[in-house]
Every structure is written in C-alpha cells, then in structure tokens.
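Lab channel / #folding
Pinned by the channel admin:
"Please post every new chain as: sequence first, then the structure tokens as a reply. Keep commentary short and put observations after the output so the thread stays searchable."

First post following the new format, from NK:
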Amino acid sequence: MRWVGGQVWVEDAVDAPRPPAVARLRDSFLEETAAMTLGLVRERDGALVSGPVELLRFGAPETNEHGVAWPIAGGVLAAAPGGRLRVFVDAGRLVARVEGYRPALPRSLYSATQLVAHHILVRLVLLRMRGRVPAAAVPADVSSRMAAGAIDVALCAGLTLLLARRRRLRAFAAITAGYHVAAWAVSGRTVGGALMRQRVVSVDGSPVTAAQAVLRFISLPFAALRMRAIHDDVAETDVISQR
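Reply from TO:
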C-alpha cells in the first residue's frame, strides 16, 4: 500500500499465462468480489452494498485492450469521489490496482480492517478468474494426497495423546487446525506432504496466504463428506507433486 495525502494506491497480482477476456473482467469482477463475502456484500447497479448501505459506488466501466477501470464515485467507505479501480493484464500477470482512492476510515483503522479484507477478497477473485489452466505444476495424484493426509492425522493424534490429558477431542481439533494452517501458510508442506513430496500452492503456483490456509482448512470437512477437493476450490489452491 502507498498512502499519499489521504489517497491510497494498492495492488494485487497473480500469474496468468492465459488471462480472461476483458469483457469477462468488466462483467464479472465486481460480482465475483461480492460473492466471496458469502452474502455480506452484494453487487447492485455498479455498487457494492451491504443491506441498505452503499459501501462503494463505481462509475461506468472504461475498457481498453488491456483491461477495465471503474471510477470510484462514492459510498460510505469513500471520503470523497475520486480515484479508480483497475483490473488489467500486464506481462503475463492479472493485476487489480486501486489508484488514488480516498478511504473514509483513518489510516490505521483502514490498514487493520478494510485493507486486509481487500487483499483477501481481491486475491481470491484474481485467482478464480485466472483459472486452473494452465496448471502451475504436475498435480499430486489422489493416492499420495490421501497418504499424506493420513500421516498428518496420525501425527496430530499422537501430539494430542502426548500433550492433552483432558478434553482430548477439543485438543485434537485445535492441534489439527493450528498445525495445518501454519504448515500451509509457512511452507505449503505438512509433514505428510513432505514425506509424499507434495506441496500446497495457489492455482498460479504462488505461495498460499494465511487467509487461503484458513479457508482451506475450514472447508476440508465438506471435501471429506463429498469426496471431492472442495477445499481447493474454495481457497483457490492445488496440491502439486515435487518428485
């Protein structure tokens, strides 16, 4: 983030060898961003709204061969109209950049709240619009993924027996969550993943963020129930082989 005279410049980018068409960026980016909030925010007539509150209002999109830009026209999160949101393709990257935006929140509060949410949501949207093709690397096969998962569960169970004398079910849940989220966010590799020579990455091959790691773990039970990698769909991640 760059903050100059009350104006903010923020950029997020992902690798995109086959970027989406400009028309898709124009028609879907704001809608996809709202969808990531699970109903807390909606896109309506070029604005992001929460209930009756208009959070940010955008002017008509302006397109060129490289991407699209929306002028920031108002909303309760804007101290004044001005600046713009750009989504464009640059040298094999899909970029979302906020330029000259004036937040209504003070700098410290903006940095701790709105900016964090912005980075989480925009990164997920960029990864989704980038898609899984081409793959960042050779995907790990199902059998090795299941073997890695079994190793990690056994390890967490062992740690629970060693460290917890009471309420072991609760302790097991806490240890399992902390272990997986930390391992994915720090290196992309759990102990099971290292032994099976695989790593969790974002769909563009970049490291997994802490927010992606949390989303991936939270949605893991649904993947187990449906026997499908829903957690990777939600977090925009993949498991790649490193043999």
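NK: The radius of gyration is 20 Å.
TO: also worth noting, The CA atoms of residues 46 and 58 lie 6 Å apart.
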